[in-house]
Amino acid sequence: MTDILIKGGPRIAGGVIAAPGPAQVEIDASGLDILPGFIDVHGDAFERAIAARPGVYLPVGIALAELEAQLLAAGVTTAYLAITLSWEAGLRSAATYKMLRDAVLARPAGAVPDLKLHVRFEETNLDCLDMAVADIEAGHVKMLSFNNHTPSIMKKLAKPASVAKMVERCGQTYEAPKRTDTRQHQRIFERDCEHEQE
After folding, report:
1. Which of 165, 187, 167 is CA-nearest to residue 176?
2. Which of 96, 86, 88, 92 is nearest to 59 (CA)?
3. For 50, what's the count of Cα atoms within 13 Å in the CB-facing half-sphere?
4. Considering only Cβ atoms within 10 Å of each terminal Cβ, which end of the chain, N or C, has fewer?
């Protein structure tokens, strides 16, 4: 990592703000404000980098390169990628989560911006619970939150325009969300019944 001296200000040595001293590069920032990098604690812009248009997915390497450029241009040096891990298809699917997780973990140590996983776990996504717990225990997940979109999705199924939006986002057929959500609703009902019997 290159040491940088900001003329009239601090030195950046090994990526850390340090006292003025010799450096490989000197920058004249006279008249400018110098700020540390911003931390984006909840960013989902990566979704548009991966799927620039509904149903059109870019290779994750290209998508992350584009995202990194956008983040750095905005002064963001640490970003928590808020990926929803849901039972839905498309951007919220287990497949997309695994793809993004693996790409983030494969980045070299010290890569800038620093990308971290913020898992937004859909609480009814029982199929992915073991994977989520394993990733948390392994230290891959740096932030965790819980979602429960299922009740609102169930209400939307009676509205064709709402289903069309879901289809566009997920890249499914028009009937697929109804079938998926009906199966999911049955599984939730069965789970709740089992808990009541215990």
Report:
1. 167
2. 96
3. 19
4. C
